[in-house]
Specification:
about 190 residues; alpha/beta; Rossmann fold; five-stranded parallel β-sheet; 5 strands; about 55% helix; globular
Amino acid sequence: MIRIAILGDIGAGKSFVSKQFNCPVFNADKEVAEIYKNDRSCYKKIKKALPKYIISDHLDKKFLLKAVLDSKNNLKKISKIVHPIVRTKMNKFLIKNSSKKLVVLDIPLYLENKLNKKGDVLIFVEAKRKDIQKRLKKREYFNEKLNRNLKTLQLPLTKKKKLSNFVIKNTFNATKIKNDVKNIKTEILNI
């Protein structure tokens, strides 16, 4: 199995690129949303770590975002609880799809959490700052300070790009992205 990890800035279009490979995709952001919704153990741990922000019987993204905005330390507390759960889910995904030729790992903190293995194909999605900003502002919970706090967990984009095997320049043109992915996929399968 060839593991393809999609790297890039918040809002650069990593998830769209991931889907274009037409193979199993592990999307960490979707997994986190699912954990917040259904994992009672996670709920109890976060409630214990951040009692003043958890005021209902479930994890409300609005209150978690407030916690992150109030302190970068809160983000670290949440990450320490959630990341091991995501890692377990990723490992189950890899086992389930072990017979597939390719799998895509859409995990924003892939390198930061040392999930990369020798032989992984790293693809960096690059987009213009103004295009990213335009897209981020459309998101329901967009907040510039939140964005900055999240970036404190990330390696510099220049380093991620340098470590990558391929770079896709995302101009947010679906046809171009599909062609770029098709070419990269062909090259990966012919290695």
